Amino acid sequence: MTTAFAQDPYAELLRPSLRARLRFEWGELDDRTVWARLPDQSVVRLGREALHLLLDLDAGRTREEARARYELEPAELRGILERFAQGGAVLPPEGMFGKIVRATPEEDKALAPWLLAALPLLVIHAEYLARYATTAVLPTWGEGLLVLVAGLLAALLHELGHYAAARPYFRPTFGFTWLGWFPAVYADTQQAWTLPRGLRLRISAAGVLIDLVLNALAILFAVRYPWLERYVTPFLLAQLARWSLTLNPFFDGDGYWLLCDGLRIPNLRTYARQRLEEGRRDVFSLYALVSLALGAASLLGLLLLLWNVLGNAAIALGLLPTLGGA
Known about the structure:
This protein is α+β, with helices and mostly antiparallel strands. It has two domains: 2-102, no CATH class; 109-266, no CATH class. Helix content is 58%, strand content 11%. The chain has twelve helices and seven strands. The longest helix has 34 residues, at 283-316. The protein is elongated. The N and C termini lie far apart (92 Å).
């Protein structure tokens, strides 16, 4: 049976008399459901009954005995077992030993070491901008392009920070996309919602911590070699401008997800708008109002930008007269 199981585990999973050993790590979530990390590093979310059923299977019960005890539908049980087999968590009982480990609960203080590391880095930023920074705008296009490339590399490292923080717990996706006409990199870490809040906060904050370390290194070089100040200061200003968007809790970004995790509300914007529509007068309704106002202002600003760009292009091509023209 061992050989047959290894060759075709899905066929074995159909047998009501199946006895199997399991190996995975699990822990509790805020809503009292369970996350389980399989040997292939993928993460799944389970209900309590499904977890106890898997524990019974590992203890020697047959598949049919475990299913009947917890009143699960056959298709539901089969789906769970197939997912675990796909992740390498289901082993044949003969000659194999499973290992089901309960993870140590993650406390909210899981982010504390990162905050302690960020504070001195923020002090370095403030000290540099107060005492050393003099250049706000570079005089030539070539130098500006150099800073732009550095900013794009910083954005790449930012996303790699999210990816690296999430990789021990599941397999995030990393790739390139387009935001309108602009290329962008992204790390998809949506599976973090299957993890405890402390780990989710770490993943959301990882990109900002990478930014702080990178900026601090650039500052140290600028202090050691003063001629680099003309490049480092515009780079830092560009980084601060990017933070004003990514850390803004009213837009989709790190700041928004950190706030969602901090409040234990998976989709804060939807929840706040529901409160507003219900006529509630609380901080969530205020959040919804500010979010809607900023969204409208952003759309208006984009329309004005397009109007000016297209208008100037039309004037340059002679399609429209200038304001002072005949």
